[in-house]
Write a structure and sequence with these properties.
Elements (H helix, E strand, L loop, with lengths): L5 E3 L5 E5 L2 H4 L12 H6 L17 H14 L4 E5 L2 H4 L9 H16 L3 E7 L5 H5 L7 H17 L5 E6 L1 H9 L11 H25 L5 E7 L3 E3 L4 H24 L4 H7 L10 H5 L6 E4 L4 E5 L8 E4 L15 H14 L4 E5 L17 H19 L4 E7 L18 E4 L4 E4 L1 H12 L1 E3 L1
The structure holds D-gluconic acid.
C-alpha cells in the first residue's frame, strides 16, 4: 500500500549490499591464498588504469570487523559477498587451505551475530591461476573442479549460509575475459570464449547438485546475470536486427539454456563457426531448477548495425542528450523493463536485484562529509522502478546495492567509486556517504520517498 509519495515494499522484502572478494579483500599473499587470474592480469603492464592492482584494495581481509560493524550501522539486512576460490584451494583443486575457510567462517558468524543474512557468491571472477595454466574455463575439467570447490565451501558453511549464488555474471567472465580480453585472463579467442561460457554454465549446474548434496541447511540457490534491455539506435531494419543479435549474445545466450534447456536457435546459427559441439546431458545439467534468479542491472544498451564488429555485427552507442554516469547512461526505466521481461518470458520462481549502483566522482568535503546527491537520485529512481515491477506482478524479493564501500573496479582500478561508504585508499579511512544514511532510511521504512 503506498502512502502518498512513499512507495512501500512487501513485508519481508530484503534490502542488502553486494561486494566481491578480489575487489575488496587485498591480502593477496596472506592466509594461504594462492594467486588468481586477476593477480596475474593486474601485474601485467598496461591492463589496469594507472597500473593499479587488488593487492591491498579495501584491505577488507584485515578490516572485515569494522566493515561488518558499518553494515550493521546502516541496517543492511543481507550482505552479498564472494568467496575467493584461491583462498579455499590455492591451486584450484585438491589441497584445502583451512585458513581461507576460517576467514569466511568468521565473517559469516559476525554477520549472523548482527542479524545480517549472508548471501555467498562462489565465483566472482578470481579463478586460481594454476587452473588457468591448465586451460581455464575453456577447459571442461574446470567445471568439475568448481563443483568440488562448491562442496568444500558448503561443507564448512552450509549449516549457516542458506543464500547461495554459484556465478556472478558468466557473460563477463566468458566474453570480457576471453573474447575482448578487457578482463582477466585477457584472451582474445572467440572459440575459447564460447567454450568458457558453456563450461561456466555447466559448472553452475554441477555446483547446484553439489550444494544440494552437501549443505546441512537447505540451500536457496541462484546465480547473478548481468542483463540489459537492448534498444536499436534507430528504427532502421539494420539497427533493429543488430539489437536482436546483441540481445541474443548478452541476455538470451544465458537465459535460454538456464530456463529453456537450449541455446537460442538464431544465435547458434550465427555463432556456428566458433561453437564447440555440446555434449549430451550438458543442457539438462545447466537447466537444473534453482530457487531464484539474480539480476545485476546498471543500464540499457543502445545498439547499431556495425559490420566491422565480429560475429554479431553490432556495437553499442552512447546517444547524445541523455544523462550519463562515469560508465553508463542513467536509465532507471530499464530496471522495470528487464525485470518484467525476464519474469514474463522465463518464469523464474522469483527474482532478486543482486546489483545496482552508479560510479560518480565523490570525495569528502571540507567538513569531512561525503555528499553524493547523484547516487541518492540514482538509488531512489531505480528502487522506484523495482516497486513498479512488483506492482506489475513481478515477484522481486530483494534489492542489493552495489556496493557497500568503494572498491577495485577491475580495469578501471580505483577510479570508479560505487560505495555507499567512501574509502580514502591512502589511509583506508571509511566515511559513510550521504547515500549510505539515505539507504538506511529506505531500509527502516521498507520503502522510498519520491
Ligand atoms: C559487475 C560486477 C561488479 C562490478 C560492478 C560495477 O557487475 O560488473 O559484478 O564486480 O564492480 O558491476 O561495474
Amino acid at each position: 500500500m503506498d502512502r502518498g509519495d512513499l512507495l512501500t515494499f512487501p513485508p519481508g522484502f530484503q534490502w542488502g549490499v553486494a561486494s566481491s572478494s578480489y575487489q575488496i579483500e587485498g591480502a593477496v599473499d596472506e592466509g594461504g591464498r594462492g594467486p588468481s587470474i586477476w593477480d596475474t592480469f593486474c601485474h601485467t603492464p598496461g591492463k589496469i588504469a594507472r597500473g593499479e592492482t587488488g593487492d591491498i584494495a579495501a584491505d577488507h581481509y584485515h578490516r572485515w570487523e569494522e566493515d561488518v560493524r558499518l553494515l550493521g550501522e546502516l541496517g543492511v539486512q543481507v550482505y552479498r559477498f564472494s568467496v575467493a576460490w584461491p583462498r579455499v584451494q590455492p591451486t584450484g583443486r585438491g589441497k584445502v587451505n583451512g585458513q581461507g575457510l576460517d576467514f569466511y567462517e568468521r565473517l559469516v558468524d559476525a554477520l549472523i551475530a548482527r542479524n545480517i543474512t549472508p548471501c555467498l557468491t562462489l565465483y566472482h571472477w578470481d579463478l586460481p591461476q594454476p587452473l588457468q595454466d591448465a586451460g581455464g574455463w575453456p577447459n571442461r575439467d574446470t567445471a568439475r573442479y568448481f563443483a568440488d570447490y562448491a562442496a568444500i565451501v558448503a561443507g564448512r558453511l552450509g549449516d549457516r549460509v542458506t543464500g547461495w549464488i554459484t556465478h556472478n555474471e558468466p557473460w563477463v567472465a566468458a566474453f570480457a575475459g576471453n573474447f575482448s580480453g578487457e578482463h582477466a585472463p585477457g584472451i582474445q579467442d572467440p572459440v575459447a570464449a564460447f567454450q568458457a561460457a558453456h563450461h561456466l554454465l555447466l559448472s553452475h549446474g554441477l555446483a547446484v547438485e553439489a550444494l544440494r548434496a552437501t549443505c546441512r541447511r537447505k540451500p536457496s540457490i541462484g546465480l547473478a546475470l548481468n542483463l540489459n534491455p537492448v534498444h536499436p539506435a534507430t528504427d532502421s531494419q539494420a539497427d533493429l536486427e543488430a539489437a536482436t543479435r546483441f540481445d541474443g549474445v548478452l541476455n538470451r545466450w544465458f537465459l535460454d539454456p538456464l530456463y529453456r534447456g537450449s541455446y537460442p536457435e538464431d544465435m547458434v546459427r550465427l555463432f556456428e563457426p566458433v561453437l564447440t559441439p555440446v555434449r549430451e546431458g550438458d543442457l539438462k545439467t545447466i537447466s537444473t531448477p534453482v530457487e531464484w534468479l539474480g539480476i545485476n542491472y546498471y543500464s540499457h544498451t543502445v545498439a547499431r548495425h556495425d559490420p566491422s564488429f565480429p560475429l554479431i555485427e553490432a556495437s553499442q552507442v552512447q546517444p547524445t542528450g541523455r544523462e550519463y554516469s562515469q560508465m553508463w547512461e542513467i536509465y532507471p526505466e530499464g530496471m522495470h523493463e528487464i525485470l518484467t521481461r525476464v519474469w514474463n518470458e522465463y518464469h523464474p520462481p522469483y527474482l532478486v536485484v543482486t546489483e545496482n549502483g552508479i560510479p560518480v566522482a565523490d570525495e569528502p568535503d571540507l567538513d569531512g562529509k561525503a555528499r553524493d546527491p547523484r547516487r541518492i537520485a540514482y538509488l531512489r529512481d531505480h528502487i522506484a522502478q523495482v516497486h513498479r515491477a512488483i506492482a506489475d506482478g513481478v515477484d522481486v524479493r530483494g534489492y542489493y546495492h552495489w556496493s557497500p564501500t568503494d572498491n577495485f573496479e577491475w580495469a578501471h582500478g580505483y577510479g570508479k567509486r560505487f560505495g555507499l561508504i567512501y574509502i580514502d585508499f591512502s589511509t583506508q579511512k571509511r566515511t559513510v556517504k550521504d547515500s549510505g544514511w539515505w539507504f538506511k532510511q529506505v531500509i527502516e521504512a521498507n520503502g522510498v520517498e519520491l
